[in-house]
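Re-running Energy-coupling factor transporter transmembrane protein EcfT to confirm reproducibility after the cluster update. Everything else is unchanged from the original entry.
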Amino acid sequence: MSLLTPSIRPSAVARLNPISKLGAAIVVSLALLLSIDWVSALVALALEGVLLYWCGLSARQFWLRTSTLWIAAPFAGLTTVLYGRDSGAVLLTIGFVTVTDGSVQLGLAIALRVLAIGLPGIVLLATTDPTDLADGLAQVLRLPARFVLGGLAGLRLVGMFIEDWRFLSLARRARGVGDGGGPIGALRRFFGPAFALLVISVRRGSKLATAMEARGFGTAPRTWARASAIGAGDAVMLGLGLGIAGIAIAVAVWAGTWHFVLS
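Result of re-run:
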């Protein structure tokens, strides 16, 4: 079962060690953060689009899980275009808002970067089982078992939090709480269940921590039921991450758009 849904069909990427997928995503993200130009982001996004086809997500699953990102990226780019640093020829002036060649290119680069960094993370997360991720963190990266098991327990509760939110909203609607129109009613409908969910989460977390302490989690050296190791497929995944990062930077340097962010 993946972090987001149990209906992901098996794929070559889903069978890889989560650490290799995490490493590939981090390599690409770091490469894109070294420069804010649209060419490297576009090249990385195009190469990622080819590889994401093999992740096992159907078209519907892909668009549902990445819909927020497709909405956020244009807004981030538009905000940068309107209020970013001005440079080059002035294209539009409305009051205190000035749009220039430089701000348009910067806005395009920001929007493409949001997609190029966010899409692999979301898709790879959807094809990763929480237990496999915990096994990799503990056995491959040698992270403390107490930290790993605590994180695994928290990930397992995400689905419960979603169900709690839905039931709280239905219960409040059945009692007629926060049904008033306008912005005040919308705030009540949000903050009421949010506070109740916070209280439930704290109580549930405390009980879970007590239960885990009572069963000896993190108090002694642990053994693991399933072995987690890096294989040839994982090496290929890491190589693909390095290849995407290298090609994106090389094309941007060749096009003359790559500039180190700290220079």
